[in-house]
Each structure stands twice: as C-alpha cells, then as structure tokens.
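User: Predict the full complex structure for these chains.
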Amino acid sequence: MINEIFLMNGYGLYVWSAFAFTLLSFVSLYLITRIQYVKEKNKFISKFGNLNSERAASAKSQSINREILSNISSI
Amino acid sequence: MFKYFEPNKIFSVTSKAPKYVLLLFIIVLSIGLAEALIFSPEDYKQSHSVRIMYVHVPAAWISLGTFSSITFLSIVGYIFKIRNFFLISKSLAPSGLVFNIVALVTGSIWGKPTWGTWWAWDARITSMLILVLFYIMYLVSWRIYENKDKVFKISTVITILGIINVPIIKYSVDWWNTLHQPASINILSKSSIHVSMLVPLLIMTAAFALFSLLIFLMKYNTELIKIKNKGLDRL
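Assistant: Here is the predicted structure of the two-chain assembly.
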C-alpha cells in the first residue's frame, strides 16, 4: 500500500514533484504576501505612533485606520 | 450600487476574513490531497500519472478566470472611474501569475511520461506561456509608472490585449492539431471524465480558489494600508 502510494507504478517521481512544486509555490506566495502585509502594517503603526494627539485623532476618525489598528494581531 | 465597493466598506470585511479563509483552505486542501493522491483511481491509459491533473487543471482554470476578472474589473473601473476596481485587479494578479506558472510547470512534468517530452511548442502550451507574459507585463506596469492615471490606462490596455489570448487558449485544442488533449469537462454537454475523478478535481479546484481568495484578501489589505501610510505622511 505504502509502496504503491510512493512509487505509483514508476510515475511517483512525476506525480510527487508536481504536487511538491505546487505546494512550494503556495507556501512561497503566502509567505511573501504575509511579509509585505506585516511590513506595511508595522510601518503604519510606527507612523501612527509618531503623530501628535491632534493628528492621531484626525487619522483615527477614518474608519479604515481604526480597522487597521484594531486588527493588529490578525493575519 | 458602486458605493458597496468603497474601500472602507470592503476593508471591514477583508481585514477579518483571511484567518477564516486560511482555515477553510487547509481543510479543503487536506481532503482534496487525500482524494487526489490516495482514493481516486488510476487511469487505464495514463496510470498514476493522471493524478497530476488534480493540480494542473485547477491551476489553469483559476489563472484563466483570474485574468478574465482582472480584465473585466479594469475595463469597468476605467469606464466608470472606480479606482477601487484597479486596486482589486492589482491584488488578484499575483495569485493569477503563480497559478499560471504552476499550470505550465505541472503540465511540463505531466508531458514527460505522457508525450515523452518536457516541452512542445504546441498551441495550448504556447498560448499559456503568452498569458504568463501578459501577467508579468500587467504587474510590471504597476511598478514602473508612478502616475495613477497613466498606470490605470496602461494596465487596462494590457488586459484588453491579453484577454484576446484567453479564447485562443480555450479553443486551441479544437482549432489546431495539438499534443494537448481536448477538454474532458464541458458545462453545456456531457463530460467524458468519470465521477470518481471529477469529485477530487472539483475539491482541488475549490481548494485552489480558496487559496486565490486568501492571497487576494491579504494583498488587498496590504495595498489599502500602503495608501493609508501615504495619507499619514500628508497629515
């Protein structure tokens, strides 16, 4: 059974490499996108932290800014 | 109707959705992989190499669907001046490109045991390679042009030129003699694929669509935060 799953009548190398390439592409794209997202979010948080209280209040009046600040721990 | 496409309305959903989509993707992918690699039967002609279909076909479908969506959104966005449609299109493109590359590479791996060659300049494969070039041109246009109006115009032109290639990809196997087999699944007529292979194929397609949605949501959120960062600079 195990042999059949891995060797697949001699086609195992082709099948497993196709699936491995696909999953590797997915993981790479996910990580790249996540790194970009975290980078931009951290930039936003540091820029927001440098605002004085009046400007911070003005920035916080925009709903998207509030959402970004409230979703700091999510993906 | 277009007010529902305003970034602040969309962001309230897109900022929370990725974690749920990721969880759903992992569940559907696990079921799909078990079906594709273990439970689905081997083909009477191609033996186990047919299992490559479960990654190759969904990847090709989603890359074509994504490019068509990008074109539709770019044209509507350009006509009605809806900037958010361009942001959605731009966020869809990276996953579309990756799916296109996956379709080409897995097709090449499938070609070796089936046709005896890794690559052939046949109509289907060549037209898919041209689609990769259009994806790259589209993404590069966003990188090289600073002026927003210019990038909206140029990216829309690229998608209009690229969409001409989509029906060529679809019908290339009917119009020319190609190594690539004709479509086994037809919406309007009877499909030639057995249900024991169709089910894993549809599950893998659902998994790939969820992954595409996940990347789109993360990319869209990143783009919106980038815009907000520029806004904070101006405060």
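Chain B has eight helices and no strands.
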